[in-house]
Automatic annotation (TrEMBL):
This is Radical SAM protein (TIGR04043 family). Keywords: 4Fe-4S, Iron, Iron-sulfur, Metal-binding, S-adenosyl-L-methionine. Its cofactor is [4Fe-4S] cluster. The keyword Cytoplasm does not apply. It comes from Catenuloplanes atrovinosus.
Amino acid sequence: MAEPPVPRPRFHDLVTADGTPYHRIARMPEAGLVTSTVVQTCVRYAEPDRCRFCAIEEPLREPDGTLPVKRPAQLAEAVRAAVRLDGADRVSLTTGTGAGPDRGARYLARCVRAIRAAIGPAVPIQVTCEPPADLAALGLLREAGTTAIGMNVETLDDRLRRRWLPGKARVPLAQYEAAWEHGVRVFGRDHVSTCLLVGLGERPADLIEGARRLVARGVHPFVVPLRPIPGTLAHRDGLTEPPPARVAMITEAVDALLAAHGLAGGAGMPRRAAAVG
Ligand code: SF4
C-alpha cells in the first residue's frame, strides 16, 4: 500500500540569515526525518562512470531547486528549525563523491559538527558516503557527532559492479571491507550499514550469503529493490523494477539473519537506505 503523502514541513516557510529558503537546503521525506544531500554533485556522474541507478544531479536543473552545495551554517539553521517546528527526531545526510581520498567524508564532518552545535546531543545524525580511502575521516565524523554511517556497496559481485556502477567499481571491495571494519570499531556494531540492490541480475543465494558475512561482522545490510527513476540511465534504458516476490523472498532471508544476530538497527540507523554515496 502506498504511504500517505507527508505534509509540507513548517520549516520550509523560513529562510536562512543569508536569504536562502530552507526548502533548498533540507527535506522531510517522512515524519520526523530531516535529510540533505550536502554536495549534490559527484565526480562519477559523467558517463560512462555514473552509477546506472543514480540521479543525484538531476534536481539541480529545477529552478529554485536544491543547492549544489549546502554550507554547514545553512544546514545548522535549517535542521534546528526542523527540530523546533516539525519535531524532527533524526537527521540523515548524504553526499555525492568528491575527488579527494576522503571522498567527501571530511565535508560531511564539518556539516555534522555545525548541526550538532545547533541541535545538541539528543537527535541522532546518520551520514552516507563512499568508503574513504583515508580511514581517519571516519574518526573525524564520529568526533563531529555522527551517530551512524552508511557506506553503500550496492552489490558484492564484481562483475555486476563493473556493469552497473563502473566508476565506483574501481574502488576495490577490499576497501569497502576495510572501511566497514574500521566503521564498526568507531561507531559500534549495528551502526554501520550498506545497501544491497535487488534487480541487477544477481543470484539471490549469492546476495543472501554476502548479507550473512556482513551481519557476522556487525554491518547492517539493507535490501533495496532497484527503482529506475526518471533521470537515471536505468530508466533511459527502459529497465523495470524486480518482481516483488523476489524482493520479498530476499528481504525475509536477510531479516532472519539480522534477527539471529540481534541487529535491530542502532541509534540513528535509517529505516531504509539511500542509494547515494
Ligand atoms: S551513486 Fe554515488 S558514486 Fe554513483 S554516481 Fe551517484 S553519487 Fe556518484
